[in-house]
């Protein structure tokens, strides 16, 4: 096993002395990590030098969120999910609906397999968006990477994105070289990402050396956007106004695959395996890493007694239009897929398309004062 | 030479990138580390690690993440253990020299905690001097420092410290309040007394990893009379504070020296000691606190003096600095200033407190003259 001098030094202390105090904690890591597990895993180190303490620091420092069950651990490299599988497997199972260590994940980025999705009523569906993350094989992840690695990820990303043409032709804006005018425009477009302030991310070391090697790329039409070196190596976003999720997903799949080809040519494909799908920094994003969603006006349905039940059955989740954990404004909700791992991209976007179509129908019924009891779906 | 962290050299999956690829972008930076660190220096230092595995990137991360403060020149680096100052001396020596008035790598630092050597200090006018305080930090030899220590080490520091403090008696007898076990009532009392320290929010501290595992292993100890206070595992292993209302700095310093010496004896009885050497004096997390780690100061009412054209010049000559009464980088309120020693390294504790005592006495005399509409020109001190 790779030698890690700092970790070896910590081994001088017993597991009782080192085991974190998780008595006030409410996150997936705290639910799963026992003293025995800690004892077994603490002497290990991935080849790049990431340890159990490194994985769990964010969960130790952030006892829990009042509204959402946080994961409480991150991966520092691809090998973490294997070296520390005793901890990650139960967390993955708990977070991803019982996903087993022997399960296989299916990837399907063939947009033609999506049925419908081009006719969501724009009077209700204001905008559509699909995002995912990608990690570049051969480099460690944002909690652990060195400046040199981060810069290489940026360099490779810029090269790959520069080869895009047609509808994908665009431009890269590095955070540390942005003019004031560019910055204002990116803010106005709601594209600019800030230095993380969330303690969840800061504790995991993802803001180190900010803004070095961070940047934003988008196409001229502003419908395809890539974040470089934020919480993952890459975050890829396709979006547009209105309800044509089919078109959003088409652009998403086509753009992603073009980018992946370029990386593969440099022998740096995306991190992927047949058990976990796409490997990302946070275990909650494993599998597809995909969140496909709409901003949709559901003032009546959202106040209906069965709203939560309907979402659960459709395998959808709601958020405010400011993003995760914000409140909705004026009855407009962000509705997206709840799952990431164990179903394919097409399957997840299909659930969003079908589910939103149904909810808009329900909204229209409620507007007319009619009941929706006959429309309540079965559990997907 | 201490070993290089092995994972940096043996990892065949990820070939180690060149120093040029790894050198930080310091083009927007204004701190001591950024002034000193060159590509050549970085190339040389990145092949080293302390015996506990602390590397150059660990030392400088806070200075990279925090380009600079508009009002104060930050240090931009920290020590992760006692050995940092030796293993990375090419970087730290010039920083120490720049920060501590030209202190050379060959200079020796004198420690003097004999309170009897302080002349006067018991007669600062309480109409002007509202309160007096002396603080310092101490590190416990054998443990890594807050940027690098493990939970086990931090708890070890806490355990040893609490044992030592529990055996203090007389007017030093007191009680320890662990941050994670505090009752609401205890917490409120500590807040009212202005004793409670919060989880750090300063990005300078957060970027260096000092808030990890909060509040595990952190706490506050104070004596029953609330004149002697110890912080455990905040920015340093220990911060020791002696304070009281009024201008009797001599008494504050007496208690400070007595308490510190007693605590040190207790640690020695347990087979350990404070980190100290004859070049750097007391070794602390931040290079700005080397030497004595001592800040002795008063809150003093000098509304006239502080508006005088020569105020800054007077402070400079007296080797004093001013702060607002909220602490470093706050503004003064109602003409009341926090006046303390500017130096830490190269002068002894007695010498620094003497400068405060003598300097504040002079400032109060000047204030009184200005109140009477008299000139202070003949009171201007020479440069100390």
UniProtKB/TrEMBL annotation, chain A:
<dbReference type="InterPro" id="IPR000749">
    <property type="entry name" value="ATP-guanido_PTrfase"/>
</dbReference>
<feature type="domain" description="Phosphagen kinase C-terminal">
    <location>
        <begin position="124"/>
        <end position="366"/>
    </location>
</feature>
<keyword id="KW-0547">Nucleotide-binding</keyword>
<comment type="similarity">
    <text>Belongs to the ATP:guanido phosphotransferase family.</text>
</comment>
<keyword id="KW-0418">Kinase</keyword>
<keyword id="KW-0808">Transferase</keyword>
<feature type="binding site">
    <location>
        <begin position="319"/>
        <end position="324"/>
    </location>
    <ligand>
        <name>ATP</name>
    </ligand>
</feature>
<feature type="binding site">
    <location>
        <begin position="127"/>
        <end position="131"/>
    </location>
    <ligand>
        <name>ATP</name>
    </ligand>
</feature>
<dbReference type="Pfam" id="PF02807">
    <property type="entry name" value="ATP-gua_PtransN"/>
</dbReference>
<dbReference type="GO" id="GO:0004111">
    <property type="term" value="F:creatine kinase activity"/>
</dbReference>
<dbReference type="InterPro" id="IPR022415">
    <property type="entry name" value="ATP-guanido_PTrfase_AS"/>
</dbReference>
<protein>
    <recommendedName>
        <fullName>creatine kinase</fullName>
        <ecNumber>2.7.3.2</ecNumber>
    </recommendedName>
</protein>
<dbReference type="InterPro" id="IPR014746">
    <property type="entry name" value="Gln_synth/guanido_kin_cat_dom"/>
</dbReference>
<dbReference type="InterPro" id="IPR022413">
    <property type="entry name" value="ATP-guanido_PTrfase_N"/>
</dbReference>
<keyword id="KW-0067">ATP-binding</keyword>
<dbReference type="InterPro" id="IPR036802">
    <property type="entry name" value="ATP-guanido_PTrfase_N_sf"/>
</dbReference>
<feature type="binding site">
    <location>
        <begin position="291"/>
        <end position="295"/>
    </location>
    <ligand>
        <name>ATP</name>
    </ligand>
</feature>
<dbReference type="Pfam" id="PF00217">
    <property type="entry name" value="ATP-gua_Ptrans"/>
</dbReference>
<dbReference type="GO" id="GO:0005615">
    <property type="term" value="C:extracellular space"/>
</dbReference>
<feature type="domain" description="Phosphagen kinase N-terminal">
    <location>
        <begin position="10"/>
        <end position="97"/>
    </location>
</feature>
<dbReference type="GO" id="GO:0005524">
    <property type="term" value="F:ATP binding"/>
</dbReference>
<dbReference type="InterPro" id="IPR022414">
    <property type="entry name" value="ATP-guanido_PTrfase_cat"/>
</dbReference>
TrEMBL record, chain B:
<feature type="domain" description="Phosphagen kinase C-terminal">
    <location>
        <begin position="128"/>
        <end position="370"/>
    </location>
</feature>
<protein>
    <recommendedName>
        <fullName>creatine kinase</fullName>
        <ecNumber>2.7.3.2</ecNumber>
    </recommendedName>
</protein>
<feature type="domain" description="Phosphagen kinase N-terminal">
    <location>
        <begin position="15"/>
        <end position="101"/>
    </location>
</feature>
<keyword id="KW-0547">Nucleotide-binding</keyword>
<dbReference type="GO" id="GO:0046314">
    <property type="term" value="P:phosphocreatine biosynthetic process"/>
</dbReference>
<dbReference type="Pfam" id="PF00217">
    <property type="entry name" value="ATP-gua_Ptrans"/>
</dbReference>
<feature type="binding site">
    <location>
        <begin position="131"/>
        <end position="135"/>
    </location>
    <ligand>
        <name>ATP</name>
    </ligand>
</feature>
<keyword id="KW-0808">Transferase</keyword>
<dbReference type="Pfam" id="PF02807">
    <property type="entry name" value="ATP-gua_PtransN"/>
</dbReference>
<keyword id="KW-0067">ATP-binding</keyword>
<dbReference type="InterPro" id="IPR036802">
    <property type="entry name" value="ATP-guanido_PTrfase_N_sf"/>
</dbReference>
<dbReference type="InterPro" id="IPR014746">
    <property type="entry name" value="Gln_synth/guanido_kin_cat_dom"/>
</dbReference>
<keyword id="KW-0418">Kinase</keyword>
<dbReference type="InterPro" id="IPR000749">
    <property type="entry name" value="ATP-guanido_PTrfase"/>
</dbReference>
<feature type="binding site">
    <location>
        <position position="194"/>
    </location>
    <ligand>
        <name>ATP</name>
    </ligand>
</feature>
<dbReference type="GO" id="GO:0005615">
    <property type="term" value="C:extracellular space"/>
</dbReference>
<dbReference type="GO" id="GO:0004111">
    <property type="term" value="F:creatine kinase activity"/>
</dbReference>
<dbReference type="GO" id="GO:0005524">
    <property type="term" value="F:ATP binding"/>
</dbReference>
<dbReference type="InterPro" id="IPR022414">
    <property type="entry name" value="ATP-guanido_PTrfase_cat"/>
</dbReference>
<dbReference type="InterPro" id="IPR022413">
    <property type="entry name" value="ATP-guanido_PTrfase_N"/>
</dbReference>
<comment type="similarity">
    <text>Belongs to the ATP:guanido phosphotransferase family.</text>
</comment>
<feature type="binding site">
    <location>
        <position position="239"/>
    </location>
    <ligand>
        <name>ATP</name>
    </ligand>
</feature>
């Amino acid at each position: 096993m790779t030698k890690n001098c700092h970790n070896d030094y910590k081994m001088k202390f017993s597991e009782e002395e080192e085991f974190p105090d998780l008595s006030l904690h409410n996150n997936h890591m705290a639910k799963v990590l026992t003293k025995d597990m800690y004892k077994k895993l603490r002497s290990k180190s991935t080849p790049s030098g990431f340890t159990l303490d490194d994985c769990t620091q964010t969960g130790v420092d952030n006892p829990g969120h009042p509204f959402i069950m946080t994961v409480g651990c991150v991966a520092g490299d691809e090998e973490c999910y294997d070296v520390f599988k005793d901890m990650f497997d139960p967390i993955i199972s708990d977070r991803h609906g019982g996903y087993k260590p022997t399960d296989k994940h299916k990837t399907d980025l063939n947009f033609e397999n999506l049925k419908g999705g081009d006719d969501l009523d724009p009077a209700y569906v204001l905008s559509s968006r699909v995002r995912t993350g990608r990690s570049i094989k051969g480099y460690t992840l944002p909690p652990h990477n060195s400046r040199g690695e981060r810069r290489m990820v940026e360099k490779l990303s810029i090269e790959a994105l520069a080869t895009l043409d047609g509808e994908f032709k665009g431009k890269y804006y590095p955070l540390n070289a942005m003019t004031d005018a560019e910055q204002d425009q990116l803010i106005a477009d709601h594209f600019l990402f800030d230095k993380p302030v969330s303690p969840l991310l800061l504790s995991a070391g993802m803001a180190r050396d900010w803004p070095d090697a961070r940047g934003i790329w988008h196409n001229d039409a502003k419908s395809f956007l890539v974040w470089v070196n934020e919480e993952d190596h890459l975050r890829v976003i396709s979006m547009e106004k209105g309800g044509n999720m089919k078109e959003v997903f088409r652009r998403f799949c086509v753009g992603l695959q073009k980018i992946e080809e370029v990386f593969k040519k440099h022998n740096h494909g995306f991190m992927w395996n047949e058990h976990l799908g796409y490997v990302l920094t946070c275990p909650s994003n494993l599998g597809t890493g995909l969140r496909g969603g709409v901003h949709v006006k559901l003032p009546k349905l959202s106040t209906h007694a069965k709203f939560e039940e309907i979402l659960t059955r459709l395998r959808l989740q709601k958020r405010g239009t400011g993003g995760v954990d914000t409140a909705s404004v004026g009855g407009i909700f962000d509705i997206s897929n709840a799952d990431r791992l164990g179903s394919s991209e097409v399957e997840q976007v299909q659930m969003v398309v079908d589910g939103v179509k149904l909810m808009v129908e329900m909204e229209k019924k409620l507007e007319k004062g009619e009941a929706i009891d006959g429309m309540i779906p079965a559990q997907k | 030479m201490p070993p290089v962290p092995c994972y940096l050299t043996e990892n065949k999956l990820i070939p180690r990138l060149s120093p040029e690829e790894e050198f930080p972008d310091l083009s927007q930076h204004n701190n001591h580390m950024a002034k000193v660190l060159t590509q050549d220096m970085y190339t040389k230092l990145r092949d080293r690690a302390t015996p506990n595995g602390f590397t150059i990137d660990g030392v400088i991360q806070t200075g990279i993440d925090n380009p600079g403060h508009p009002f104060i020149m930050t240090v931009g680096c920290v020590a992760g253990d006692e050995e940092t100052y030796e293993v990375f001396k090419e970087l730290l020596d010039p920083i120490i020299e720049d920060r501590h008035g030209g202190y050379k790598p060959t200079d020796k630092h004198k420690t003097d905690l004999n309170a009897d050597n302080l002349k006067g200090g018991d007669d600062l006018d309480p109409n002007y001097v509202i309160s007096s305080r002396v603080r310092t930090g101490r590190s416990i030899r054998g443990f890594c420092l807050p940027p690098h220590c493990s939970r086990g080490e931090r708890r070890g520091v806490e355990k040893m410290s609490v044992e030592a403090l529990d055996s203090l008696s007389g007017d030093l007898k007191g009680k320890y309040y662990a941050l994670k076990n505090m009752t609401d009532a205890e917490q409120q009392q500590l807040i009212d007394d202005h004793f409670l320290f919060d989880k750090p929010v300063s990005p300078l501290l957060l970027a260096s990893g000092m808030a990890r595992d909060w509040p595990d292993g952190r706490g506050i100890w104070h004596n029953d009379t609330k004149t002697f206070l110890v912080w455990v595992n905040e920015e340093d292993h220990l911060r020791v504070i002696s304070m009281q209302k009024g201008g009797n700095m001599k008494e504050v310093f007496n208690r400070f020296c007595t308490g510190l010496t007693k605590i040190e004896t207790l640690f020695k009885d347990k087979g350990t000691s404070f980190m100290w050497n004859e070049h750097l004096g007391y070794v602390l997390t931040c290079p700005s606190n080397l030497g004595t780690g001592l800040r002795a100061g008063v809150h003093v009412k000098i509304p006239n003096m502080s508006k005088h054209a020569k105020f800054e010049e007077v402070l400079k000559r007296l080797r004093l600095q001013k702060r607002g009464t909220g602490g470093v980088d706050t503004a003064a309120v109602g003409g009341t200033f926090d006046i303390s020693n500017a130096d830490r390294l190269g002068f002894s504790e007695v010498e620094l407190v003497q400068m405060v005592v003598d300097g504040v006495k002079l400032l109060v005399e000047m204030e009184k003259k200005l109140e009477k509409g008299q000139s202070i020109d003949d009171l201007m001190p020479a440069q100390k």
